[in-house]
Amino acid sequence: MAKLVLNRDFTIVLLSVLVQIPLAIFLGHYYDERSFMDTGYLVSAGLNPYQTHLITVFSPYIVGVNPITGDPPLWPLLLGLIYRLTYNITPDIFLYNFAIKIPVIASNIGLAYITKKILQTQGASERKIRFAWLFLLFNPFVLLTSTAWGQFDTLISLLCISSLYLLSKGMVTKSAILLSLSVVLKPISFPLLGLPLLFSPERNKAKILKYILISAAVILALWILPFYILGWIIPASNTQTTSFFTRAGGISLFSILELLKDQVTFPTSLQILGYIWVPALLIGYYFVYRDQPKTFNALIEKAAGIMLVFFLTFSWVSEPYINVAIALVLIGLPLSKTNFRNFHFLWVIPLIFIIVTTNFSQLFFLVYPGVIASLAQLDQQIRTWRLIARFLVVVAFQIFAWMLVIQMLKRKNNSVNSSSTT
Question: How many whole angstroms separate alpha carbon 339 and alpha carbon 333?
Fold first, then answer.
C-alpha cells in the first residue's frame, strides 16, 4: 500500500512538473523576469547589479537600461551563476528563462512535500492533507505567480514553514538559519523574526540569545558583507532607501493613489503612510504576546496572522507575496479544524486582481514582444475603469483578509496538549 501511495504521489508531482515546464520556458513577468535576466548577466560580467547599465546582450527581446534589482545579494549571485551556466554557453533566451525558474519549480514541489509531511505529523485529516498537497502543485494562482511570473516567494514560504516547524521541535539553530536565510533572499519574511522570541516552550534566555545571534550572523554574512566583498555600492542613498516605503500600489489599499493622483509614489505630505505597517505589526505582536503560542499549530496561525497584517498595511504588495500567507494559512486551517471554504478567497481575489491589472498580459512578453506596446495603447482607452475595478478588488481582499487576521490572531488554541486531529 505504501509503495502504491508513493507511486501515485510521484505521478502527481510529475504531472505538476509537466504543467510547469512550458510556463517556465515561455512566460515571465515583463518587469521582474527582465530584471532577473539583466541581473544575472551583470553579476556574471562582474558588474554592479545595483547600478544602471545599458544592456543589449538579450536583443531583440530585452534592450535598454536594466531595472535595479531590489533583492539582497544572495539571489543576484544565484542569477549570475545561472547565467554563466546557460546563456553564457548557449545564448538562448528561452533556455535562460527556464533555468531561472528551476529553483522556483523545485520550491513549489518542496513546499507541497513539506506541507503534506507536517499535516500528517500534526494529525490533520487525509482529505485536508490531500487538498493542501494538490493545491500547491496545481493551483492556478500559485503557478502563475511563481513558475510563470518568475518570482520565488514559494521558496520563502518553504524556508519559513520549515523554520517554524523545526522551532517547535526545539531545533533553535536550524530554525534561526532557515528563517534568516529567507530574509536575506527576500526581506518580506522579516515580520516573522520576532515570533520565535514569543514561542513559550522555547522561551529561555539562552535559547533566545542563541536565536538572535545566529540570525544576526546569517544576515550579516549573506546580506551586508557581500556588498563589501564584491565591491558593490550599497543602495543606501536617501532616495534608494526610502523608495521601498514611498511606493504605493499592487494589491494594497494605497493603490487608490494611482486612481486619484495618477502616480504610484506618495506625495511628500503623505509619505508617513508608507510606514503605517510598523504600528500595525506592533499591534499584531501585542495579540501574539497576549496569547503566546505553545504548540506548532498555534505558532503557524500566529505566523499567518502576522504576515497578513504586514501585507495588508504595506504600501506596495506584489501578488506573488501572497503566496507566503497562502502557504501559512494552508497549514494553519486544517490544524484548527476550520472549513476550507472561506480560504479560497485568499487566492481567488488576488487571481482576479492579476486579470484586472496588466500583469497577466505582461507574462507573454517573450512570445509576443509587442504586448507591452499593445497594453499601453489599450490602457489609454480603459485606464480609469481598469483602475476602479482594480481598487474594488483590493477592497474585497482587504475585507476578507482582515477577517482572517482576526481569526488567526485571536483564536485560543494554545494548550500544550491540545489535539491536532481534524
Answer: 7
